Amino acid sequence: MRSIQRDLVLWAALALAAGMAVVVAATYAFAYSQITSVFDDELVKIAEAVHLGEDWRGPGRVRIPRQGFNLSVRAYNQRGASYFETAEPSMPEDLPKLFEPGYTVMQTQGGRWRLYTHVAGEGIVQVGQPEATRTSLARTLSLRMALPELVLIPLFVLFMAWVLRRGLAPLRQISRRVEERDASRLDELPTEDVPAELRPLIGEINALLVRLDASMAAQRRFVADAAHELRTPVAALALQVQVAERAAQPATRAAAFGELNKGIARATRVVEQLLKLAQLGPDVAPERFQPVDLAEIVREVVGNMAYRARTLGIDLGAEASAPAPMAGAKAELRSLITNLVDNALRYAPRDSEVTVKVIRDAAGIRMTVLDAGPGIPAAERESVFERFQRASGDDTPGIGLGLAIAKAIVERHGGRISLEEAQPGRSPPGLAASAVFPSLPRA
Asked: Best label site of 1, 19, 397, 421, fewest CB within 10 Å?
């Protein structure tokens, strides 16, 4: 399992090691530069001293006191004839004699050499030194300078581990507090003594706890309300079964079974609505939205419900000829339109009209279902969108879930729904249920 503390300590140690490597490299480069400058000056001084202090009388080998830096000297004339050279250390046999003054770097079988050639008249003095001497000295100096810092790396790692453990202590405390929460305890986490960097996290956790508490409370209310609403139709079904069982006459039994079938249909509708409402809950992810034409869906639903409308003596029509592009889930939009049209057909009187209009205006895509029914009092037009809420005086079959389902679908699509009078000033005033959705840009 990954550990933030371990990762931070590891990365800090790697960063420190990388920094130390850079320091060692920079120290080596600086030391080598300084050593090169000092030794180059020594080459010049020795060459000039040998040339000025010697009288070239013939070849020979001399011994120069060693200083520990492997300096070799040789002298020769313009024809290459040797005057002398140091016996120890001596220059490599394959190191050529140079006749041009200045510094030179030569490669020999024994390694690279740094040479300085001094020319004065017929005499030439060449002073050389293996570059390995310089690199070895620079390496030794840089490591000696960096050694105390290298020793500090493990101490720094231990210190970082201690600091991070103390710094992450508030996170462990928050974790313990979250573990203490369960379905029966969703109170907010305390924010006192919380570091400023963790306050946004605590705020989001508390907001999540509030939403979760509200969602669970809503679910508990929903279950309680559903149980209450289902109790009545189930009891009615049981009573109708008893009546059918006790009926002596075939006609009475047939009538009882007819009522039983109606009760089963009502109970089935209640269960379907409850399931649909549960699928539209706030904790259920919405179906993936795609570009759809709301006008086309309206025409499809109206066509499917036309037969039922005719059996009720109602003229059901759609005014949705122009395209109405929006982002949505077709199945949910069909359910929305079906619910609103079903409500309209339930309350519209015989020989009246129910019309579904779809237009595109500045507000977006507007769909309105109009009927000539009794309408809903203005004071109750908001409350009827709540679960199991019905308008006062409503005696039609149902438990008050249709508009709750419609509102949930509209809000999942980023829209809003409202109720108004379809025929202001007339009796009955009718009802206009309008849903407005964001529209897609015109092609």
From this structure: 1
Which of 226, 434, 268, 269 minimizes the C-alpha distance to 344? Answer: 434
Q: Is residue 180 part of a domain?
A: no
Q: pLDDT for 101-146, tens place per residue?
A: 999 998 888 888 899 999 887 888 888 889 888 898 888 888 888 7
Q: Which residue has the tokens 């710094």?
A: 167
The CATH number covering residue 364 comes to 3.30.565.10
**Which of 107, 128, 156 is a domain's end point?**
156
Positive or negative, the CA dihedral 272, 273, 278, 279 is: positive
> Do the beta carbons of residue 437 and residue 328 sit within 8 Å?
yes
Are residues 92 and 22 part of one domain?
A: yes
| Same domain for 217 and 102 | no
What pLDDT is recorded for position 393? 63
Q: Which of 126, 69, 440 is nearest to 290 (CA)?
A: 440
CA gap 97, 124 in Å, rounded:
9
Structure tokens at 308: 């039922």
**Residue after which a domain boundary falls, among 279, 314, 346:** 279
DSSP H helices, 280-420, are 294-311, 330-347, 402-412
Distance between CA atoms of 301 and 340, rounded to whole angstroms? 11
Sort strands 325-328 and 353-361 into parallel, antiparallel or unpaired: unpaired
In contact, 270 and 235? CB cutoff 8 Å = no
Do 347 and 375 belong together in one domain?
A: yes
Within 10 angstroms of residue 34's Cβ, the number of other Cβ atoms is 12
Same domain, 296 and 433: yes
Q: Which two tokens stand for residue 107?
A: 């490669």
Q: How many folded domains does the chain comprise?
A: 3
> Does position 278 have pLDDT exceeding 70, yes or no?
no
For Cα atoms 29, 35, 37, give the angle at the middle one, nearest 5 degrees. Answer: 105
Q: Which residue range forms the structural domain that includes residue 22?
A: 4-156
Nearest to 113 by CA among 65, 68, 72: 72
Is the pTM higher than 0.70? The answer reads no
CATH number, domain containing residue 214: 1.10.287
Phi, psi of 248 (to 5 degrees): -90, -35
